[in-house]
Amino acid sequence: MIAVRRPWPALVLVLSLGACRESGDRTSVSTATLQPLDLLGSFPVLQPSAEASPGGAAALDSSAQAKDPPDVTVFLIGDAGAPAQDGEPVLNALHKVASLDPRRTVVVFLGDNIYPDGMPDSAAPSRKEAERRIDAQLDVIKRSKARGIFIPGNHEWGGISGRDGWNAVAREGAYLAAKGGMMMPTPGCAGPAVADVGTTLRLVMLDTQWWLRRSGPPVSAREIVPCAFVKDKVIFDSLKALLRSAGQRRVVLMSHHPLASSGSHGGFFTEETAKYPLTSLKSWLRVPLPMIGSVYVAARRMGLSEQDLTSPQYSRMIRAIIGTFSENEPLIYAAGHDHDLQVLQFEGVPRYHLVSGSGIFGHVSAVGKGPSTRYAKAESGFMRLRTWADGRIRLTVLTVDIKGRITEAFDEWVTQARSKQPVAKNAD
User: Fold this and answer.
1) Using CA atoms, how far apart are residues 232 and 50, in angstroms rounded to an integer?
2) Interior CA angle at 140 toward 116 and 343, to 5°?
3) N or C: which end of the chain has fewer CB within 10 A?
4) In the β-sheet with 250-254, what is the strand arrangement from edge to edge?
5) Segments making up each domain of the chain, as ranges
6) Terminal Cα-to-Cα distance of the chain (whole angstroms)
7) CA angle, 181 as apex, 149 and 139 as ends, to 5°?
8) Lowest-confidence range among 79-88, 141-150, 344-353, 405-414?
9) How far apart are CA 65 and CA 68, in angstroms?
10) Where are the alpha helices (H) located in 191-282, listed in sequence order?
11) Angle at 318 between CA 317 and CA 320, to 5 degrees
């Protein structure tokens, strides 16, 4: 009996860390550097500031959009870092809708753009496959002619080990820039980076893995990327300044890691997970290990992995970010990380919290529902925000099937015209 029990702690640790590996298994910031980048005007390739098928939803939306065109459309898609080699249904669907009005469209990739360990060295055997994975996402931008932003996730920083994290995120940023893409914030820096889009919206980006990383940049990089060495106070003072200076623009704050979630990173697990814990590594490893599974679930809920909201590092980061909202707050906080689609609404700030982390078809995980849940489904897809010059903002959750067909699964006004207050309606 003792011989059987001894491996449990190690196995639980492997499971907890492995769950955050997510390999794509398919079941000093100065005021001057924080000037907004106008993404809908000219779009040069430069270093960012430091900081549907016929008859389907897409066709219907195109008709409605022609009658009342939005000022800007923003698509939010996360965790798309292992697209299918024979054509990724979710990315194909994203290309269709992003092509409807590309001049006024921005696509934001919310991190984990290359599974499992970010961009490897050019001599690494896995380099070719890593390039294919990020190229599939870049191709959406190039073919649709929309604008694109890539936010780093934990996998950009070297995945589970993080040993080569600084170099990995820097390599991905350089690769994107060479291909006409843009990583924001500056690779290796926490941010914030800012981009004003249209006349009514401000996008603010953070690299939250900067706080959760396992190793920082080498001292030799201080002169090359000084923003990677700034103190938390400088970062959060800059974030406060961006919120304060937004004026009449609504602010959408975006990163890879959510501040709230009803998914596995937020502590939700099904009985299936407890019975078959190895499925957290590979969906086909359905080996019944209920006792180990129970320990695994308890360990995840206690924050054994720094990638879970309950971990000490993650909890401190949440408190610090929310602490910047005391005077001015974003309307929306958007993230990926959990492989599902969630719309959460709170009485406090930010009012809406979005989780859009199912950018690969079939790469989804179970999600629960709580008092703040407006929508929560373990389905593949992405989200769309449309804004109008009069202040209206409309949120839509778009799910995608294996053939790339789009369904509007959730749709509501986040705000009405400026003279009116934010509204809410019952979820479908």
Assistant:
1) 14
2) 70
3) N
4) 193-197, 201-205, 250-254, 332-335, 352-356, 341-345, 373-377
5) 2-415
6) 51
7) 95
8) 344-353
9) 5
10) 209-212, 232-244, 271-275
11) 65
The CATH number of domain 2-415 is 3.60.21.10: yes
The dihedral sign for the CA sequence 256, 258, 263, 266: positive
Largest CA distance in the chain: 71
Whether residue 176 contacts residue 187, with contact meaning beta carbons closer than 8 Å, is answered with no
Say if strands 147-150 and 105-109 run parallel, antiparallel, or are unpaired: parallel
pLDDT tens, 46-81?
233 333 333 344 444 555 566 889 999 999 999 999
Q: Hey, what are 235's tokens?
A: 């970062």
Residues, the chain: 428
- List the structure tokens of 105: 């469209």
The model carries a pTM of 0.84
CA atoms within 13 Å, Cβ hemisphere of 309: 19
Sheet order of strands, 393-400 included: 147-150, 105-109, 72-77, 381-387, 393-400, 406-415
Q: pLDDT per residue over 299-348, tens digit each?
A: 777 777 899 999 999 999 999 999 999 999 999 999 999 999 999 999 87
